[in-house]
């Protein structure tokens, strides 16, 4: 397996069926936990940036000369987006010394919201997906991750009464 295929498929996770994107998102969860445990929010951010650029390169290599700009086995984009969705729990955990596993509702919400936005592709998520190139493949999941992270923050605000609801 080439380096691009290893990165793009997240060590073969992208070949799991059905729903390889969901498997890629699930694979991101323990990776995010390890990164957060080792280096907190800063390490998760650095890893997200590395995953984005590594995924961009791998996607360009894997789709070169092909009509399909976003084959289902490429799931590194889901890892980047899922990491971003989890920033919403990683930062408060790191900043306030809270064990990240104590924020388990945020893990579930982040996963479900990310999958919802990645599958339904509302607004700018769909715009990025329609770009038809490697940057679009990565960017639609980044935007979906941002939407999911905002959703996690809103749900946490409601849950903790911060929003006055």
Structure description:
The chain is mainly α. The chain has 6 helices and no strands. The protein has helices at about 5-10, 20-65, 75-95, 105-120, 125-130, 135-160. Helix 3 (about 75-95) runs antiparallel to helix 4 and helix 4 packs across helix 6 (about 135-160). The longest helix is centred in the N-terminal third of the chain and has 44 residues, at about 20-65. It is globular, with a radius of gyration of 16 Å. The model has no long low-confidence stretch (mean pLDDT about 95).
Radius of gyration: 16 Å
- What level of helicity do the residues show? over 70%
Q: Span from first to last CA?
A: 52 Å
Give the class from helix and strand content and strand pairing. Answer: mainly alpha
Average pLDDT level: 94
How much β-strand is present in the residues? under 5%
Number of helices: 6
Secondary structure: number of strands: 0
> How does the overall form come out from the CA principal axes?
globular
Which spans have pLDDT < 50 for at least 5 consecutive residues?
Answer: none
Q: Characterize the largest beta sheet: strand count, sense, and whether it forms a barrel.
A: none
> What is the element string, with H for helices and E for strands?
HHHHHH
What are the SSEs and their pairings?
Layout: H1 3-8, H2 20-63, H3 76-96, H4 104-120, H5 124-129, H6 134-159
Helix pairs in contact: 2-3, 2-4, 2-6, 3-4, 3-6, 4-6
In brief, what are we looking at here?
With 165 residues, this protein is mainly alpha-helical. Helices cover 73% and strands 0% of the residues.
């Amino acid at each position: 397996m080439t380096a691009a295929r290893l990165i793009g498929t997240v060590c073969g996770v992208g070949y799991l069926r059905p729903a390889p994107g969901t498997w890629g998102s699930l694979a991101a969860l323990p990776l995010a936990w390890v990164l957060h445990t080792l280096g907190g929010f800063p390490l998760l951010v650095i890893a997200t940036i590395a995953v984005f650029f590594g995924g961009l390169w791998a996607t360009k290599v894997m789709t070169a000369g092909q009509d399909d700009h976003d084959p289902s086995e490429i799931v590194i984009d889901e890892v980047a987006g899922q990491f971003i969705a989890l920033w919403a729990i990683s930062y408060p955990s790191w900043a306030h010394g809270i064990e990240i596993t104590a924020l388990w509702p945020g893990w579930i919400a982040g996963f479900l919201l990310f999958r919802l936005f990645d599958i339904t592709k509302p607004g700018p998520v769909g715009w990025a997906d329609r770009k038809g190139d490697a940057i679009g493949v990565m960017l639609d999941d980044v935007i979906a991750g941002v939407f999911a992270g905002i959703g996690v923050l809103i749900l946490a605000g409601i849950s903790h009464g911060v929003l006055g609801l």
